[in-house]
Amino acid sequence: MAESTHAGEAQEPLVFRGRPKSMVSAAALLIAGILTFSMGINRLFFVEAIAYTFLIWGALLMYGHMIDIGTVFEVTDDAFELRSPLRFWALSRKWDWGHVTRLDLIVPRMEAAAGDVEMQVHYTPEGSTVLYREDIPFIPALAEEIAARAGLTPERQQEMQSFDSIPQEEKATYTWN
Question: pTM for the whole thing?
Answer without folding.
Answer: 0.83
